Amino acid sequence: MQTENVHLLVVEDNPGFLSELLEWLNDFGYQHIETATSVTEAKEKLKTPFDVIIADMRMEQDDSGFAVVNEVKARNLSSVVIILTANDTVSDCRKAFKMEAWDYISKNMKGNIFDILHESIQDAIAYFNRWGNIQNEQWIAENLETLEQNYWGQYIAVINKTVIDAADTEETLNERIEERQLRLFLTTIRKIGDLRSISELIKLPESSRLGLAEKA
Questions:
Q1: Cα distances (angstroms) measured from residue 177 to each of 46, 114, 184
Q2: Is the CATH code 3.40.50.2300 the one for domain 3-131?
Q3: What is the b/e burial string over 30-65, where b = at least 16 CB atoms within 10 angstroms of the residue's CB?
Q4: pLDDT-derived band at 154, boundaries 50, 70, 90
């Protein structure tokens, strides 16, 4: 994923800071940017997928940034959330990372805060382009037996430790993800199962799909 392809949602209620932030993001090369000035508006915007969400902490409520993180998790969205706040505290920072926000950036940091934000977005892109989603990978490994029973020989798409779709080919699965407007940014695609000998296949429990096929 390149900078010009990243879809950003900026949630910020300070008009002056929002205007300056948008100017910098445009200068950095981001071409797909939408804004919201409240958690309520952000929830409405999240009906459309975003790769990265930049959320102010204190808007209509003191923990608005956390409310955005919770909404992303509740909807199983494949989005990176960066908390950007002028009222930074150690406790908020610890909570942000416990809630699996990508970053927590103080507007009071020394240097150019916009450079720091841009670097954080680029780090997220580089990390997931190279490594994918480790949590999804671990979840697949831990639940492989169940996944093999349900999706043997298929490609599955996993977001936030949840199988959101499956198909016989990777090409078909990618097409479905595009149709559903899901970003591939944090989506893990894996093929379940490999070739086994006939003797091993005989020992496997009967697939629920096979029973349905016989009844049909």
A1: 16, 32, 8
A2: yes
A3: beebebbbbbeebbebbeebbbbbbbbbebeeeebb
A4: very high
Closest-CA residue to 68 (of 96, 43, 37, 97): 43
- What's the token pair of residue 128? 């997931």
Domain ranges of the chain: 3-131, 134-215
Lowest-confidence pick of 5-9, 49-53, 182-186, 209-213: 209-213
Give pTM, 2 decimals. Answer: 0.68
Contact 8, 32 (CB under 8 A): yes
Tell me whether strands 80-85 and 103-106 are parallel, antiparallel or unpaired: parallel
Is the separation of the CB atoms in 113 and 120 below 8 Å?
no
pLDDT > 50? residue 68: yes
Helix residue ranges, H only, the chain:
15-28, 39-45, 64-74, 90-98, 113-131, 134-142, 144-151, 170-179, 198-203, 208-215
Count how many residues are written for the chain: 216
Dihedral of CA atoms 140, 70, 58, 32 in degrees, nearest 10, equals 60
Sheet of strand 32-36, all strands in order from the earlier edge strand to the far edge? 32-36, 7-11, 52-56, 80-85, 103-106
Two tokens at 96?
């942000």
The per-residue pLDDT for 130 is: 74
